[in-house]
Amino acid sequence: MARLASPTLLATTAGASIAAAVVGMAIYPAASFDPSAAVLFVGAVTSFAGVGAFLSIRVPANRVGQLLLAAGVIFAAQVLSAGYSTASAASGGDWPLTAHAALLANVLFVTPIVIVAAGVPLVFPDGHLPSPRWRWLAWILVAGTISAIVPSALMPGPINGNPAIQNPFGVPALGPWLELSNSVSTLIALPAFIGAFAAVAVRFRRGTSVERQQIKWLLAVALVAAVAFPLAFIGGVLLTDSPVPLLAIHIGFGALIALPLAIGVAILRYRLYEIDRLVSRTIGWAIVTAVLAVVFVTLVVTLQAILAPLTRESTLAVAASTLIAFALFQPVRGRVQRSVDRRFDRARYDGRGTADAFAEQLRSEMDLTTIRRSLTATATAAVRPTGSELWLRPRRRS
Hints:
two-stranded antiparallel ribbon, about 75% helix, mainly alpha, globular
């Protein structure tokens, strides 16, 4: 499809999808409008549709770009139809095709999720299945998606629990069969998603070093979303008055927006090998932040208990704790970052250590033969060449 579509058509499709998402969020009634949700939804459509169109233009043979573009277009249509039906219901439901728009939003909800969570990992990074034997999983994904869409489209009664909006295509006689289809889609979803994850694991195990780096970009962002969304759900149930669920849901959507960008970097191989450094820095800063936060809270509580007989205010304890935490920042950061680099950025860490050791040796060594031997040994240990030769320019006579 991407080979037949012109770059202008692909760019226009992405632009129209972004415009549809903006319009869909703009027409939401003020009572139910959430600015942060609007930014996240429009950002997700922009990321998926924009990166999908760009990849479809640059690498048309890779189906990953087409899948990302399809997910962005469908998500934009879902946002627009949901905004239209919500605005119509808020104004009395007298807008034309209100029920059809609500039904469309309900039907399109699951498709982008299947594409992003299962379809893209199944063909990432080259746009093809790992082998022809994986075709059965692709057909299971198609069957599961259809079995989830059909009950939403034909189930009679109110849409999304709104009694004012009834399904215009509901068929009461198919009620039991639709319930069965919905159960089948639920049973299919688990093995389908597990199979997509298994495809990524197989590629990582059997792939080349370039493919492993590409998969690292996908996993690094997907792991954040995989942790944030369950944390938001669990926190919403257990911590109803805590800001943790809201923060987790925003982090999850942020990772979802960053997912197409990471996929684009991986496929186009732009700064492909920076993922190890990015992961090590992220983990290092997270550990340092957690350690200093624990130290700060412990010092505040301890100093308040000690200084309570002397002063009634906690300003002195907070100021002292802040100064101590600030003084510990650089030592803790250096130690933690070195430990994390040894684990997640080993090649860069070893290369820097080798270069530093050779530079230190040059400061105290004057014998040219020894320096020549050390330079050859350092280069051999750092890059493992099949052969090496050192050439020194002869001294010119004046």
